[in-house]
Amino acid sequence: MLKPVAGFAAFGLFWGAWGAILPAIRAGAGVNDGELGVALLMIGLGALVSMRFTGYLIDRYGGVVLPVVTVLFALCGVLPALAGSVVTLSAALLLLGATSGATDVAINATGSHTEHETGRPVMNLAHGMFSVAVVVASLGTGGLRAAGVRALPVLAGVATLIVITAAAVLAPGATKVTGTARTHTGKSRARLEPVLLVFGVLCALAYLVENAWQSWSAVHLDTSLNASAGLASTAPAVFAAAAATGRFAGNALLARVRPVRLLVVGGAVAAVGSLVAATANNPWTALIGIGVAGLGTSVCAPTVIGMAGAWAGPERRAGAISTVTTIAYVGFLIGPAAVGAVSSAWSLPVALGAVAVIAVVVAGLAPVADRVASPRASRQLD
Fold this sequence. Notes:
- The chain is mainly α.
- The chain has 16 helices and no strands.
């Protein structure tokens, strides 16, 4: 159980620091907001290129892939601090995205494998540690920035901690993520099975809700509700803290309830919280809604990924998870952009209200995914 928890904590450590250090990265590269936006797209592009292939590597070579991609991710995480133009920043972020996507697949595959081996829920616990690490790293990096520390020392320090984690906890030679090295054919890897498409779409919708609030909550308080800058800036931390709490609680609940029930409840709670936050007439009510939305949506994506891994079985688990997470990553990327587009056409509260509708869709689609992934369906595809 230690490996996926440590892996997700290391992953969150970087992304928490990244959000806080991004203004310094922008200043160091000498780019404007438009150029930064284009460069940031490279993270998603790099991830989409690497994620599916990483699943194949894990199915082929096993657990040794996790520490390798984690160390590469740590090293590439330093590169943006060295960028001096939009071109070099874009190149650095492309490499960062590719290694981040690979690490994402590897830690999720390890978590699913651990669940299978131990018979105990792990995914929500591991994702919860990611959220905790994001909050800690974000606040810590903010303190370092206030003390005048530049981007390179911050990212180098984070990279060092991640490499130490990889060496101490994720070291090569650990238990493999899969059973036999090659038991499936290239044909089975290449086709997109309907079950995985359903899981991928469901996870994409969950990620869309999650990243919409993570990205727009502070803006909503600031522009829609005229909150003070200090109060508005707490919104992402409230969401992340609630997400961590929800994932820890969800992990405990999975010992007593079926994953599909947790998924339905999580989607419903996320919808209620999103609606409250979107329609609030004061910042404090909105913060309560944001926290409730974080509690609900937090359990959705890790539960879906765990269900996909359980359906696939040990011989195909990493490949299945890489397929699901690749599809899901699209939702993670388009969520903030979609909210921005709807906000431009109508208003930000309307756009965030639409996020509540998507959360309802997650709750409604969960039983469908469960039926599609029934043992009978799995046997028919073998």
